[in-house]
Design goal:
heterotrimer, A alpha/beta (271), B alpha/beta (208), C alpha/beta (381), A: 271 residues, alpha/beta, eight-stranded mixed sheet, 8 strands, globular, B: alpha/beta, Pyruvate-ferredoxin Oxidoreductase, domain 3, 6 strands
Amino acid sequence: MSDVTKLIHEYLRHNKKFPHVFCAGCGHGIVLGSLVRSVHALQLPKDNVVIVAGIGCSGRMAVYVDFNTVHTAHGRALTFATGIKMANPELNVICVMGDGDALSIGGNHLIHAARRNIGVTALVLNNQIYGMTGGQCSPATPQGDMSMTSPYGSLEQPFDTVDLAKAAGANYVARSTSFHANQLDKLMQEAILHPGFSVLEALTPCPTQYGRKNKFRHVVDMYNWLKKNTVKVEKWKEGDSRIPTGVFQNLDRPGLEERYAELRQSLQPQE
Amino acid sequence: MKELQKIERFEIRLSGTGGQGLITLGRVLGHSLALGHGYNVTQTQSYGPEARGGSSRADVVISSSAISFPKTENLDLLVALSQPACNAYYRFLKRGGVLLVDSELVQHAPTNQFVGLPFTKLAKDKIGNELTLNTIVLGAVTHLLAFAEPRIVRKSLEETLPPKILALNIKAFNLGLREAKRHLGEAPEIWQTAAENGAEEDMEGFED
Amino acid sequence: MAHRRRRKRKELFAQGNEAVAQGALLAGCSFYAGYPITPSTEIMEIMAQRLPRIEDGVFLQMEDEIASMGAAIGASLTGRKAMTATSGPGFSLKQELIGYACMVEAPLVIVNVMRGGPSTGLPTSPAQGDVQMARWGTHGDHPIIVLSASTVPECLEMTVVAFNMAEKYRTPVILLIDEVTAHTREKITIPHEDELEVLSRMQPAVPPEWFKPYAEAARGVPAMAPIGQGYRCHVTGLTHDQMGYPTSRPDEVNEFMTRLFRKIDNYYHDVVLVDEYCLEDAQYAVVAYGCVARSARHAVDQARERGHKVGLLTLRTLFPFARPAVERLCMQCEHVLVPEMNMGQISREVKRVNNGRSRIRTLNRVDGQIITPSEILKAIL
């Protein structure tokens, strides 16, 4: 058996009715692959891994993998993840969200999860559009780009996930793309291992909804775009219009669940 | 345990301005009558912005049998520690009920049938701390209520107040009790007078 | 039994809100997530103080009402008994996730201390305007259990009942109280642990490879595997099959939806709780709940003193509606009065059940004041 086949057998749910929902060329599968490889590389027991997903294309990732999986409501994945982590700090809680999920309807939860530094890994799959509902403008859609709800080009300035998470105080903030699979694997493992709140943004192409409306004729064009328009943060300089990737914040504040355990310890009656 | 005096339904309103400690007063009085004495008690109070600066009140209902309606409708005892409170709530006092006021702060009582003590002045002059006003009132109210045992109320103060301020408040409680005894007379007489006045008013009303 | 020495129970002079918190802790609640809102905040404050002191107790102040619901459901999925409390506006915000909890069958207690509405309304005044919302607030057809309490000791008792029902039937349970009940102080007695029936959800009886997370185990209620104990289930707000995986197959969808309703219907007589007072010979009945039930009881006593045959039916369970008890009442009494602090939310249920047998009258008050005994008495006589 090849390594990939082994991973498939070990980590995918056989009793789930495949095929999956992702379109041809979608980057989400690559991120899911990276997640599976990372859990495998870190040798996390499957019983201890919890995938908490929101609503949208990325939210569907949860059902395919053989972990504890919770497919929550739109935007609320981080609130469920917070409850799960606080209720059982032994678990490795990984939250999977799209850009609409994490930055729009769940934006408040993202900044507060960062502020309270809950020991959860937040994966933000940014495809710059609402895919599942048919290609509407998201808070990550670049200014001027087309979508079903910005037929004349988006007027609004998009959020930068990394800047937002950094400013809100997340312990670990990183960005990669579904083109840079090796970098993504490395950052994914770091994000999962890092104590406190980690945010990993993965830029992934949505050829069906975003690509079609924004003059990407082929799926490959979108991956080429990711290749050309991103640069490692170490090489990135002020004024460079390319998107930096890599690690942007690396703090070691203790996670909320650790602080809470200390509080509980300090309140124990003295013998 | 001593046999409890039987009470039909007895309604008290403690009223004044925010900051006089009326809610705490109501809570301690209720605590004592419910847990210390063993009566059925409900205690309600004004809330929110009303409770800050403006008028403030705490109501206590006491009964030997189960209390269905938790709020007050006909007051047996109205304590008014400000002129506006006295004006606003006097009409809820039932015939034969007793009005107890701060004699310095309520200059114009709506009736000449009332009893009063200069609570705020006592707190300032005798205890040296205006915040003990409510505990002095508690002492006086305990004296007025024939069914309230000073010993048990004192114990409730010990159970509910932080140790830091306890000694001062016990002093204030005793002062209220003493002053009420000295200036207002014995409790049964006060209620007797009030009942007679109430009956007279009834007669007057009848003549109209 | 008679010879057993009576142990002293702890007594408190406490507000309804405090009684709710005490009841929750007695029922085994070890997780609270909430957001401050008047007039329910005291529940949260007490939980903030108590939970970090008990084993495994978790208290979280979340960023908003929705987040509190999410965190509580998350905790419930790990096997915790979880609670959140709120008032009017917060209850509106929680609705979507109440539906989620219904869908994934997560045991959970949501306390709503009702205040005047709509919108910000009367934050410090009582009302009973959220009754139909508690039943129908979240989208989609669903069963739900809505309980109420009218005295401070009942707040404690009904919170324990709420947790027990949530656990037994794997469903969110809503406890509706009002500002009067929440802020009245009365004596409560804390029962000893062994005097209290405390139920917990059924756990899987089979190994993970045989376990079907949404197959019924006990008359419609499935066993629940906590996250992290080897069962690795999928939980989703999408309509799911017995394995928990999304499905849109009509037969599977229908099976799921009917079971959701059936699991409450099967236990209807355990779920519906009412108190009957002076009803044996009553010719005139009052149907009430919450603080208004106290006024009604006072009025019934006064009417009886004057020789009128009046009785009171107090609803402790608002939904599912106490149809048999109300039907009996409508057969027996010529007049039924429904006083409530809204424009007629339970009276519409009473009228629906009455079917023309009795004359149903309403007494409504929406000015932020409790309906007094004298008002009810006036309406009766």
